[in-house]
Design goal:
Radius of gyration: 44 Å
Mean pLDDT: 84
Strand content: 15-25%
Number of helices: 35
Low-confidence stretches: 235-243, 808-822, 1115-1170, 1189-1221
Structural class: alpha+beta
Strand order of the largest sheet: 6-7-8-9-14-13
Shape: elongated
Oligomer: single chain
Number of strands: 50
Length: about 1200
């Protein structure tokens, strides 16, 4: 059958494939392509494994499986259901990838015949023992008797195959097995004391003669001895008839506790099989506790379990162990190996019997598979090899179990399928210790795995409260409880009454609304975060439940089917995102302004691709282990993350490199991703400048240079550079210009030579750019205020990033093919944050001079627009000079000059005469004559304005929008011009520039533009910076401050933490009036939370410990005069310098709604007057007013005089206002 190669599933810490079916042929072990596989059936599921923790494939059938058998030579597997039998064929890709597919359905003629056992013969024959017939099938293509009939093989298209022959049986067949040569068949019923031996007289037809092997009790097991490993070589060696003389040996065990060995004779012997020898398995372990119960001897024989180790495998294992000793410690003598060396010299098959209670006995049968070996007295008798007590392997008393054993080199493996407890246990030990005559029992075998679980597909998987256990429920409502043992593995206890633990925290409607996803297909949450998948499951959204921020959005090609949240510690959140056949583990990191590292990072990918099943459930366990449910199986991953699988940026950020650390625990990685940033981190430097502390940033760079001079990679570098957190922010350079060229050069050399800890390569490159930007700021520190410094620093930093991005080619060309010339200067796109700060700067002209000088005194609109100059220039004359410069550059932009390009600028400046003069000399322009005639008209008249508007509309039809806007200005219709620029042109900055230049900040044009277009846009997008700037331009100082804190009811997008930039607090503090905002308290806490999420704990501490709250709003009886808004930041900040108690109440519940009580919690207040003093003050004030009134009535009315200038004692309230209370 054609097939597509599946992927390879991940390795797991533990696999629980499901409860094995309690049948005699539920487990099979075989070798294919030099690799051992274990196949066992669990309900309707077939599990194929290659190791205790490596699940290769899961195949699902429509009916419950009852038997399985595998053939090592071809790798084919036959599985039997009650009514159907299927053949699976291996498909390979390379040497490592193997998977199986259903290719044949073996159809028996009697539909009432239920399959009981199956076995492989030679040449692809399959023997099926049923309740009514014993049937033989051939799986070879040459055995087809007709055109193959295609039919669904359990949901897949396959081929039907009819039996070669089918013989009726007297009772249901429990055992049916081919001899290695396929010439004999041994069969037995469920309670038979006779084993029927069928000798094939014809391989083409069902012709047999038979004999019966009697037993003293019910036969409980039969097994043919396999051929020796070199038997095929002997068959082809050319020695005539040699292979016919190799005896075929059958081992049988009955409930009388005796193992019987039957051997074939020669071709001319009368008996097909003859009894060779016996071993009493009960007496082999004389001191077993199963012989007595409460001091009484059992009347029935106790249960014994036995397995056979063929002589060739036994010999190879001992030889390997001896070779390992020779290479390891040749001088050391091992008495155990010497003993085993003597044992294997007799070429024995080893028979090992177990009592299930920790006792073991091993016996040897000499030369049992070689007929030509001479028989001596006692050669048939079993000889003792080893005896042990105290084995860790135990079985429930008087229960059935099947045992499979093999050697892998000198390592002994034992599979025990217990029927009573529904599990398969995998034990292992080395041959030297396991069969040692003196080793302790506990040392002989170690448990390698326990396979158990459900017999039906798992429908639900939940984490138990506390995280140290699971509760699983199957489709037939079977409930199992799982707990973690000391080794970190799951152990099961069954019970139908166990309650299911809720999978996640309860979800609120507010969370769903904040996610921006309508009708999420699946969601998950804990106390801090919530995750949602879109209706089609292809978009993942992670929400911070405290502040409602969308922390992460990620699209996927396949639908998300499962989400599970987990926390290794408070604020250390992890999310498992499950798809059909894979799981992505995301960890929460820091907030970053740059895009190299998102707030959530995928650190682990788990896949079950190729297993043939789909993911049905996820559950976290304490410590970070993740359990997956698929089919009947539960797969447990460990909490380790392979560092090689991490993104390079993540590796460098957390200082984890594959060549140094192979893996890291999930909880440790989560902690590292949210560790506070060191003081040399570029993000901290950037935010120090934004928070008005460029001198602190310079001081930290000085300290960093001092440390790096004596520091080498591998040494510990303290995150705070040996400073207390309070010292970091208080320690400022007295001279900000101290960042001189020598210091910058020395620090750059250190950063080139050494890799700093806790920063990635990209972040260290950013630090170099921050250093260069701070160097520029230091040069102009005395000529610029902090608002201008913020703008200049951000501009320079972005410019350096752009220069690096465009210097990709050595020839100096950009990736788009353009060269670095004056015609294409690099111009950063300035954020509204920098524009808002620059607007409130008192040193705008020096800032403008710096920018103009950088661009060679040639300001074009392509330069001015991204820099936002026309938005932040507050002085009308300066704005007009910039606009006139833009007009001149637009005029000279082409050769010959084109006056139409400069029309908008000149008309916005009301300089129609200048424009008319340019048109007069533009004799080369085709539109000169018509334009000159038109411009000479008197546009103060209605008909001229109407004509100008008509021309504007005509130009709009030609899509010459900027020129059309110029004609609207000519018609004195500035509103239409501005709307056209902001709308059809899509250039909001040009609209702002024209509106401000044409009418001024107080004009109706500017107000309409801001109130009708920009402010709704800012409200909708949640842009606090733009909203504050709009209010500032409208001379609304109080509203400009409030916009930086208040919520936006009209916000329609998804909320991001960028909208609550902590830097808004800095501008708010400078703009706030004497009236406190009711949102100030929450804004301070929110800013501290965001700073902590960014890793800027030092700044978060500074915010909560140094913030000073303004007094509440005054009552109507005591109105306060708000100072007029002048744009001067320095004159607006009247804060107190006393510390508040904000730090003590950080992250606690909000204060009462009334503002006066908030001051009581955060700042000391002036001592209140007692009742007596208050009454005296009121009486004195009333007496003063009465005296003034009476004196006014007695004196004649005179002209009002200006009161003399003299000192007046302020009242208590005004004093408090002066100090910020």
């Amino acid at each position: 059958m054609p097939s597509t190669s599946p992927g390879a599933p991940s390795a797991f810490a533990q696999i629980l494939p499901g409860a094995p079916t309690p049948s005699l042929q539920a487990v099979a072990s075989f070798i294919f392509r030099h690799k051992r596989y274990i196949a066992y059936i669990s309900g309707r599921q077939l599990n194929l494994l290659s190791s205790p923790t490596q699940l290769v494939q899961i195949l699902t059938f429509e009916q419950e499986l009852v038997a399985i058998a595998a053939e090592s030579r071809t790798g084919k597997i036959v599985v039997g259901c009650n009514s159907d039998v299927y053949v699976l064929e291996p498909l390979t890709e390379g040497w490592t990838k193997v998977w199986w597919e259903k290719v044949l359905a073996l159809r028996r003629p009697d539909v009432r015949d239920e399959a009981k056992c199956v076995d492989w013969g030679s040449e692809g024959d399959v023997l099926v023992g049923g309740s009514r017939h014993l049937s033989l099938f051939s799986t070879l293509p040459s055995s087809r008797t007709s055109t193959p009939a295609a039919s669904p093989v359990d949901g897949e298209v396959g081929e039907d195959r009819e039996s070669l022959w089918s013989l009726a049986v007297a009772s249901p067949v429990q055992y049916a097995a081919f001899s290695p040569s396929s010439s004999l068949i041994a069969s037995c019923g469920a309670y038979d004391r006779l084993v029927k031996i069928w000798r094939r007289l014809s391989f083409e037809e069902g012709l047999f003669d038979h004999t019966y092997l009697p037993h003293a009790g019910t036969v409980t097991h039969l097994e043919w001895r396999p051929l020796d490993a070199h038997s095929e070589e002997r068959r082809g060696s050319g020695i005539s008839g040699r292979h016919e003389e190799d005896a075929e040996v059958l081992y049988t065990i009955a409930n009388d506790g005796v193992l019987r060995v039957w051997r074939t004779g020669g071709l001319h012997e009368l008996d097909i099989l003859a009894l060779h020898t016996t071993i009493d398995l009960v007496s082999a372990i004389p001191q077993s506790p199963t012989l007595t119960s409460n001091g009484n001897v059992h009347s029935a024989k106790p249960t014994r379990y036995a397995f056979i180790l063929p002589s060739d495998n036994f010999y190879a294992a001992v030889t390997t162990a001896m070779g390992a000793q020779t290479h390891g410690a040749p001088s050391k003598v091992s008495h155990s190996l010497e003993h085993l060396k003597e044992v294997v010299s007799k070429s024995p098959d080893a028979v090992v019997t177990l009592d299930g209670q920790g006792r073991m006995s091993a016996w040897g049968l000499q030369s049992i598979g070689h007929k030509r070996r001479p028989e001596t007295p006692g050669s048939k008798e079993a000889f003792h090899i080893a005896h042990a007590e105290g084995l860790n392997m135990r079985l429930p008393t008087d229960t059935n179990a099947r045992v499979h054993a093999w050697f892998d080199g000198d390592i002994f493996h034992l599979l025990v399928h217990g029927f009573a407890d529904g599990r398969v246990e995998w034990w292992r030990g080395d041959v030297e210790t396991f069969l040692s005559p003196s080793a302790a029992g506990a040392e002989r075998l170690a448990n390698n795995a326990i396979w158990c679980g459900h017999s039906w597909p798992i429908a639900d998987l939940r984490t138990e409260s506390g995280g140290d256990g699971l509760v699983s429920r199957s489709t037939n409502r079977d409930v199992m409880h799982w707990v973690l043992n000391a080794d970190g593995h799951l152990q099961s206890t069954t019970g139908d009454a166990l309650p299911l633990v809720p999978a996640e925290e309860s979800m609120h409607d507010e969370d769903v609304k904040a996610s921006g996803i309508a009708n999420p297909s699946i969601c998950a949450a804990n106390a801090e975060v919530a995750a949602f998948a879109s209706a089609d499951g292809r978009m993942l959204v992670i929400l911070d439940r405290k502040d409602g921020y969308i922390e992460h959005r990620e699209p996927f090609e396949t639908p998300v089917r499962h989400l599970r949240c987990f926390s290794t510690a408070p604020s250390h959140n992890i999310l498992a995102v499950g798809f059909r056949d894979s799981v992505h583990v995301l960890t929460q990191g820091r907030y970053e302004h740059h895009e190299e590292l998102p707030a959530w990072n995928t650190v682990k990918k788990i896949t079950i691709e190729g297993l043939g099943t789909s993911l049905e459930g996820l559950a976290w366990l304490c410590g970070g282990a993740l359990a997956l449910a698929a089919g009947n199986s539960i797969m447990l991953t460990d909490d380790d993350i392979q560092t090689a699988h991490l993104d390079d940026e993540v590796q460098q950020t957390v200082d984890l490199y594959p060549d140094q650390t192979a893996k890291v625990e999930l909880g440790e990685l989560s902690r590292k991703l949210k560790t506070p940033l060191p003081v040399w981190h570029p993000s901290l430097m950037v935010h120090l400048v934004r928070h008005g502390k460029p001198a602190t940033a310079v001081s930290l760079l000085h300290k960093l240079l001092e440390k790096l001079k004596f520091w080498s990679e591998g040494d510990h570098l303290l995150p705070l550079l040996d400073q207390h957190p309070d010292e970091v922010l208080r320690n400022e350079c007295e001279d900000e210009r101290s960042l001189n060229e020598d210091m910058v050069r020395d620090l750059m050399e250190q950063l080139e030579e050494k890799d700093l800890p806790a920063v990635s390569d990209a972040e260290q490159q950013r630090l170099k750019k921050v250093l260069q930007a701070l160097a520029l700021v230091s040069e102009h520190a005395r000529g610029l205020d902090k608002c201008a410094i913020r703008y200049l620093f951000s501009w320079k930093l972005q410019l350096l990033h752009m220069a690096e991005a465009t210097d990709a080619k050595p020839d100096g060309t950009r990736p788009n093919g353009l060269s670095h010339t004056a015609a294409t200067p690099l111009v950063p796109e300035m954020h509204w944050r920098e524009i808002a700060f620059a607007y409130h700067s008192t040193t705008q002209q020096p800032l403008l001079d710096i920018l103009t000088l950088h661009y060679d005194n040639k300001l074009t609109w392509e330069i001015v627009r991204p820099l936002g100059i026309t938005a932040w220039l507050a002085d009308k004359e300066a704005l007009e000079l910039v606009f006139e410069s833009l007009a001149q550059s637009a005029y000279r932009h082409t050769s010959p000059p084109d006056p139409s390009n400069a029309s908008l600028y000149f008309l916005a400046l009301h300089k129609k005469a200048t424009l008319l003069g340019l048109w007069r000399i533009a004799t080369w322009h085709k539109e000169q004559r018509a334009t000159l005639t038109f411009l000479k008209r008197d546009f103060s008249k209605a008909d001229a304005r109407t004509a100008a508007k008509k021309n504007a509309y005509a130009l709009m039809g030609k899509r010459r929008f900027e020129y059309a806007a110029a004609f609207f200005l000519l018609a004195d219709d500035a509103s239409s011009a501005v709307s056209l620029l902001a709308g059809q042109c899509g250039d909001i900055m040009l609209a702002i520039a024209v509106a401000r230049s044409y009418g001024g900040d107080g004009s109706p044009v500017v107000r309409r533009l801001l109130e009708n277009r920009l402010m709704p846009k800012a409200e909708k997008e949640g842009d606090r910076w733009l909203m504050s700037w709009c209010h500032a331009v409208l001379q609304q100082r109080h509203e400009a401050a409030q916009a930086l804190l208040r919520p936006f009811p009209g916000f329609s997008g998804y909320k991001s933490w960028h909208q609550d930039d902590p830097a808004t607090l800095v501008l708010y503090r400078d703009l706030r009036t004497s009236t406190a905002s009711k949102h100030e308290y929450e804004a301070v806490l929110r800013a501290a939370r965001i700073l902590r999420r960014m890793g800027l704990w030092v700044l978060a501490l500074e915010v909560v410990s140094q913030w000073h709250f303004q007094p509440p709003a005054r009552s109507q009886q005591q109105p306060a005069e708000e100072p007029a808004y002048t744009g001067d930041v320095a004159s607006s900040n009247g804060t107190s310098h006393e510390r508040s108690s904000m730090l003590d109440n950080f992250a606690e519940t909000p204060p009462p709604k009334q503002a006066p009580s908030m001051l009581d919690d955060f700042a000391p207040t002036a001592p209140a007057m007692d009742d007596k003093s208050a009454r005296e003050a009121k009486a004195a004030e009333l007496l003063k007013k009465l005296k003034a009134k009476s004196s006014a009535q007695m004196q004649p009315v005179t002209k009002e005089k200006k009161p003399p200038t003299q000192f007046k004692e302020p009242d208590a309230n005004s004093l408090l206002d002066s100090f910020g209370f």
